[in-house]
Amino acid sequence: MQPPCCCFIPPLFYLLLPSGTWADLKGTFTIRLLQTSTFQNTSFVDTEGLGLLEDIELGSLDKHTWTIHFYQPWVRPALPRSDWDTIENMIKIYLQQFNHLINEGAMQKDVPYPFVAQCMAGCELYPNRTSRSFAYVGYNGQDFLSFDMDKATWVLSQDTNLSRYVQAVLQNYTAFSELVEVFFNDTCVDDMEVLLHYGKASLDRQELPVATVFAHTSSPAQILLICRVTGFYPRPISVAWLRDGQEVPPGPELNTSAILPNADLTYQLRSTLAVAPHDGHSYACRVRHHSLGTRSLLIPWGNSEVVLIAGLGAGLLTAMTMATITALWVWRLRKHQQMEESESRNSIVSKEA
After folding, report:
1. Which pairing describes strands 283-289 and 297-301: parallel, antiparallel, or unpaired?
2. Residue 61: what pLDDT?
3. CB distance 229 to 239 below 8 Å
């Protein structure tokens, strides 16, 4: 049995390699290549492939034709059409062999259908030009195997009969393990630099966060202060609560959600702080993001604002009540005047008659 997953890595990786030089970008960058193959039975396999630079989707595979779909306009021009044709042919040959070998191994080890095989591989490039490469294999959504680049060995993520069997198969293919090691340790950084050059505009994109603070009364003894932050890009962000100007440390009263995507390719999250009503402290939500530079967003919340809103509501209600009373009094006065004028006219008519 040949390697089940990671021989997919070199073909997909070439999909992401534009020619050129590295632009002046700062920070840590990651390329990830993802493969998901769902084995419904011995004759039907549904395979998806995706290439990512950070959170930017570069390209994917059509699950029916196994052809490449480009998501960014700067990926396709990186290589001649003939090279893309060669890459697509390599992917198709690989997937045919992959499906056959996985089904063969599943039957040998009595693996029940359906099941899912997943692979993730790539590399990280750090600001000091050092790098880290990685390759992982998953089975039914759980970690299964990983590749130790330094020792060129496959490491068990879970100790089962199936994982030991796959590990032994992969370890016997020393030529393949050497290929993975050399490919990612020696060429990944150079390829990353080229890709960063072509994707500089997309990577430089910045969207300012928009933050709002509001309160929700969860019980008579507790108020939830909610800080909602949305519309920001890139993904990394720092959101903290300040109590009397001091950052609230992690604890059971503090809860921050995961960073979630918006439909417009920006992100959102919310942070919640539980406080006692009228505890006498001032609170503010602080947001730090790359698009803000050295500045921070500071959105305060306080009882004074609630009192102001409540006072405004009471004042408005009083004004409306006074206006209603005044209007009623004016209406009654005019009605009384009209009645007096009518009686006066009737009296005059009566005398003339």
Report:
1. antiparallel
2. 93
3. yes
